[in-house]
Write a structure and sequence with these properties.
- By secondary structure, this protein is an alpha+beta fold.
- 31% of the residues lie in helices and 24% in strands.
- It contains eight helices and 18 strands.
- The chain has a five-stranded antiparallel β-sheet, with helices on one face.
- Helix 1 runs antiparallel to helix 2.
- The protein is globular and about 55 Å long.
- The two termini are 31 Å apart.
- The structure holds flavin-adenine dinucleotide.
- The site of flavin-adenine dinucleotide has 33 residues, from strand 3, helix 4, strand 9 and helix 5.
Length: 301
């Protein structure tokens, strides 16, 4: 309680918007999960740094949240602070260089680039992520990833040139160390508007054909030299349901949640898939999604 009081006092002093006892399910695409103690909504890099420093000083746990398109939040919620990047907005272009604040949606960045006759990142348009989340996860598809187009990243503890970002498959130094991405600067290519628009439409239709609609986090498991979806499908797990969570009939690496679903059902289904795939195929699956908060013993993986 003392920690919470210190945090709200700090937010009041800095004029940073915050909310207490926040329903996390409203902030992630699965639409599941309990309450977080407090959400901060900084609008500037300075506000992020001040909040982070205070949280560290107080010793409070904290989680940096983008669009919540790759998180599974415990039904018991999150005991700590959430720094939401949703108000960190702004995009600028200079020549072939585009800089976007971390709270910008990837699809908006692609559109902004397009209006400036810049492209290269059209493949990212269908990923429902923020810039910060995409950089932290090194999001990608169609054999390309965000890191390929990054020039440098400004984080809350300094500037990272591309080579220092620790980009790997769904990996970065920001995700590993919980460092907040404030903005990302992309190296783009000059393109013809129509050509680039055509690419966006092409990638969108590929997604529509391959991926199910509904509440999901995209691919649950990493593709580590094999397609996790194919392995799961080969174990006859398509359509497998536990409570409010079901393995998609369209793409077996997607778990869909019912409206008002439970994270516990999703985590139990994940556990069941991992066990079945290991027993039947000898393959160990690893999650791409990020767990937030404590999961009950029976759900732990
Ligand atoms: C329908 C659907 C399709 C998808 N398709 C793809 C795909 O093709 N390719 C792909 O790679 N992913 C895909 N995803 C997964 C997801 O969109 C990506 O992982 C995305 O990068 C997550 O971004 P986010 O802003 O939602 O981050 P969140 O889900 O909010 O957070 C994910 C991680 O990033 C960290 N993070 C978020 N913002 C910041 C920040 N500013 N600084 C530091 N760390 C931060 C969080 O702490 C967390 O560890 C898909 C998801 C859905 C629902």
């Amino acid at each position: 309680m003392e920690v919470r009081k210190a945090l709200t006092e700090l937010a009041d002093t800095l004029g940073v918007k915050y909310e207490e006892n926040v329903d996390f399910s409203r902030h992630c695409l699965y639409g599941t999960g309990g309450n977080a103690d407090i959400f901060f909504y900084p609008k500037t890099a300075e506000e992020v740094k001040a909040i982070e420093n205070a949280l560290k000083e107080i010793g409070s746990d904290y989680f940096i949240l983008g669009a919540g398109s790759n998180v599974l939040v415990s039904d018991n919620g999150y005991r700590g602070a959430v720094i939401s990047t949703e108000m960190l907005k702004g995009i600028t272009v200079k020549g072939k260089i585009l800089t976007a604040m971390s709270g910008e949606k990837l699809s908006d960045v692609v559109k902004y680039a397009l209006y400036n006759s810049l492209g290269g990142i059209e493949f990212l348009s269908g990923i429902p992520a923020t810039v910060g989340g995409a950089v932290a996860m090194n999001a990608g598809c169609f054999n390309k990833c965000v890191g390929d187009y990054i020039s440098y990243v400004v984080a809350s503890d300094g500037v990272y040139t591309k080579n220092n970002c620790g980009f790997g498959y769904r990996e970065s130094v920001f995700k590993d160390k919980g460092i907040c991405v404030l903005s990302a600067t992309f190296n783009l290519e000059n393109v013809e508007y129509e050509q680039s628009e055509g690419k966006v439409a092409y990638y969108t239709s590929l997604r529509r054909n391959r991926q199910p609609k509904g509440r999901s986090c995209g691919s649950v498991f990493k593709n580590e030299g094999f397609f996790a979806g194919k392995v799961i499908e080969s174990c006859n797990l398509k359509g497998m349901r536990i409570g409010s969570a079901v393995v998609s009939e369209k793409h077996a690496n997607f778990i869909l949640a019912d409206k008002n679903g439970k994270s516990g059902d999703i985590s139990r289904l994940i556990k069941h898939i991992k066990k079945t795939v290991y027993e039947k195929c000898g393959v160990e699956l690893h999650e791409e999604l990020i767990y937030v908060g404590e999961f009950d013993d029976e759900d732990q993986l």
